[in-house]
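This section describes the prediction task in plain terms. A model, or a person checking by hand, is given the sequence of a single protein chain and must write out its three-dimensional structure as a string of tokens. No templates, partner chains or ligands are provided. The sample shown here is typical of the held-out split.
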Amino acid sequence: MRERGFGRVIFIVSNTFWKPPGVHMLAYVASKGALIGMAHTLAVGLGGDGIAVTSVAPGLTRTPASVVVPAEEFADTEAHQALPRSLTPDDTAAVVAMLAGDDAAALTGQTLVADGGLVLG
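The expected answer:
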């Protein structure tokens, strides 16, 4: 990336950093916060080489792995989103694709929260 003078580093984090579900998720939330901190630090350190570093923080997303999440938790989460609908992997993929392309030329060090508006601000 440095040799080309262009690159994109995109971390997938979680909206739980801003709205922690409880102490039982401490390690998970801490790991996502660490990645956000890494993105900030790397954005400053690599920007001069044309490398942008960003993060995407999806909300509760329906995936094959999320079958362990109770249906009530999905329903409650969706009811509190500004856009009350199920999130899909495509929602996150679309944000990642945008960040990887030229349309995000001025973005670095940012975390985009793709959670249907559950965490605002």
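For orientation: The beta strands are 7-12, 51-58, 111-114.
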